[in-house]
Structures are given as C-alpha cells and as structure tokens.
Amino acid sequence: MRRFGLTIQSRVIFELTNHTNTRTTREPTPDIVLFTSDIQGDFRRRNNKNTLTHIFMAIEVKASERAQSRLLPGEITEDILKLEAFRKEAQRRGSNVVPTMVVIDTAPDENEQMTDDSIEVILDEAKKHNVGLFYVSPNRQETVEWDLSKLSIQ
Question: Is the pLDDT of residue 12 over 90?
Fold first, then answer.
C-alpha cells in the first residue's frame, strides 16, 4: 500500500511566475498538496527540488460561505487555470501532478447555490483543462475525471 504525505496551505513547493506585489496577487500554491511516500516527510521549502519530484496531487477547494451570494464560475475557473499552470510547471521540472478542484456548495438556500448554467461552465472548464473536479451541493453531485493518458502518471 502506498502512503502519502500531506501539506495544507503551504508555500513549500515553489512560486510560479507572479512576482508583483499588488493587492490582486494570488497564492500560487494549491490549498492541499499530496506527496508520494518518497518525500519521507521532508517537504521544506529549502528542499524544493525533492519536493517537486514527489508531488502526487494538487487540490484547490472552494466552499460557499457567503450570505445572500453564491460561488461564481469565474472564481472557480481561475482556480482551474491555476491548477493547470501548476501542473505544467511541475511537468517542466520533471514531475507529474494530478490537478483536482473540489467545490463544496453547501448553502442551504437554493438562491445562494450555484446555478445549473454556472455548474455546466465549471464542468466544461475542468474537462477542457484536464483538471479533475468534484462538485457537491445538498441536491446535486457532479464529477469530471482526468484523462490520465495526458497526465503522464506512472
């Protein structure tokens, strides 16, 4: 059985190309990063070459938490594109990463949940960019699986 290491909201991996100090700068490191057991618990920033080599999965999570508002497809698409960029950068450095988007739309009122059209947009974006997507709400569940042949997973 394979075992994995885990880091949450960590800046351990590497910084992507955004070096500007503006208010709109986003954290390039995914919310959750899973490592293969080969990392042997050492996922420090100064060990980034080893860290990059042993990344298994990068996960972004969006949860509905706004009163009188809902998650918008644009903000989820932004995270999907971030995951795609992360995967490409990791591949450029010799690693294979499984990019995954998790959307938890737990708003109890239907008028605060994502619309069907918005859900279709994010499902299409995930397929287009080969990012796995899991959407869950009180009355709907959707999944987009990866095309593993395009991920070069060993």
Answer: no
- As a whole number of angstroms, the distance between CA 16 and CA 105 comes to 28
If we measure between CA atoms, which residue out of 62, 64, 60, 38 comes closest to residue 49?
A: 38
Q: Do the bridges between strand 140-144 and strand 32-36 make them parallel or antiparallel, or are there none, so unpaired?
A: unpaired
pLDDT in tens, 97-111: 899 999 999 888 888
Q: Is the dihedral of CA 18, 22, 25, 27 positive or negative?
A: positive
- d(Cα 30, Cα 83) in Å, to the nearest integer? 7
Pair 85, 37: CB distance under 8 Å = no
Rounded to whole angstroms, how far apart are CA atoms 18 and 26?
Answer: 8
